[in-house]
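Q: Sequence in, structure out?
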Amino acid sequence: MKPETIQTLHPDKDKTNKKIALEKYLVIRNVILEILNESEPTQMELMEAIHERIKGNFDGNAQWYGETVKLDLEARELIKRTKSKPVRYLKEHKSP
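A: Exactly. Output:
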């Protein structure tokens, strides 16, 4: 049986992101959101933290999936980039 997939989004509306296994998407999504609950990492820090948290328990390239899901979360406005240099990532706080 084929695994269920999700079409990920891209913050640039003119670009199409990847279709990936939903199970892998959810693992990476949850890890990214956990990391952003604790800190505001740079791109490199975020990818390293993803790798550290899932190594040995994830079948696939953690950084590739991390980048794909990070872009999706940005497109869905769940996370955002700062305008600082270097760019940092944080959870989006929406007003009720």
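DSSP finds three helices and four strands in the chain.
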